[in-house]
Amino acid sequence: MQITAALVEERDGPFTLTELELDDPGPGEVLVRLTATGICHTDGLARHGDLPFPLPGVLGHEGAGTVAAVGPGVTGFAEGDPVVIGWPSCGTCRNCRAGEPRYCLRLAEALCGGGRLGGGGTALRRLNGDPVSSHFFGQSSFATHSLTTAAALVPVPRDLPLELMGPLACGVSTGAGAVFNTVRPQAGAQLVIFGVGTVGLAAIMAARNSAATRIIAVDRHASRLDLARELGATDTIDAGKDDVVGAVHDLCGGPADYALECTGVLDVVRQAADSVGMLGTCLLIGGAPADAEFALDHLSTLWGKRIVGVLGGGGRSQELITAVMSLYAQGRFPFDRLVEYFDFADVQTALDRSYAGEVVKPILRMPCPGRRAELVR
Predict the structure, then answer these.
(1) How far apart are CA 371 and CA 377, in angstroms?
(2) What does the alpha-carbon distance between residue 205 and residue 16 come to, in Å, rounded to a whole number?
(3) CA distance 219 to 263
(4) What is the DSSP letter of 368?
(5) Is the pTM of this model over 0.90?
(6) 81-130 confidence digits (pLDDT tens)
(7) Contact at 8 Å (CB) between 191 and 330?
């Protein structure tokens, strides 16, 4: 079928709304007509070449929409069902079988291979037949339609706003899952969150739904620190003015129990690691450019400090996303406060405003059926 997609032709190239051909769903696959899709900084990393997704191709990995068609062998989903497209995984490797599909042994191929994980190559072509890369994070959701696997889908209750749910696929679940699945705060735990964009603010909301008693937000944007306090932070630190590590130690009466590094900035990684002490845990969550390296003090790390990487919040999409949707419905996880909506044609503006710190979580609304976005042919 013909779809409209925001195509990136080359590294650092613009997003160009382009008509493409998308394959029909094959065995185990589902075609989703997208209602909206979130924008994540990981999309920017891929566009800039810091994440090795082959270009030309279609990015986007926070899609939500309705099932338009199902392929052979698909059960549990039917046309019209509202869904979020979660992360892809092979489902058969030892990590998938152990309940950790975020750490699928074929993860690089699943996220950035440029085509179907199970073989068959790309699902997208120009109208002249030339292939372009598809299946970014298993979905390539900067488009009116996405071809994905049934195993990646998470049902959305019909009484929830579907256009809001896309960020649960990555940004929101990454921060929430880091707290729910990895930190699992004990009573009285003290957490410090570095970077309060979507991921960091989601971590704060998750921590507020736990027994943690001190939740510290660190950022350079005063407006985000204000929002962090409204969403559950007990304390805030302005990284542009304060000695961050010293301020954390003062607030906690010593090192924090957990530091969640959500920026991917290497200097901040070191601050996060220095904010926890003996038997403390520093979680690396933010995405740095490929091949980035950082250094730590050996002796203080040797004394029981843990440095833990967390991908996508860990765990399974089904359980994590469903839990956050339930918390949202109960008024306990108001992630709608992070969102600003943009028309699909304004994808570049939305990404630029996100990088500038003007918008926490941009969401692109897709054209309604019968109303087409302006195309570049």
Answers:
(1) 17
(2) 36
(3) 10
(4) P
(5) yes
(6) 999 999 999 999 999 999 999 999 999 999 999 999 988 899 999 999 99
(7) no
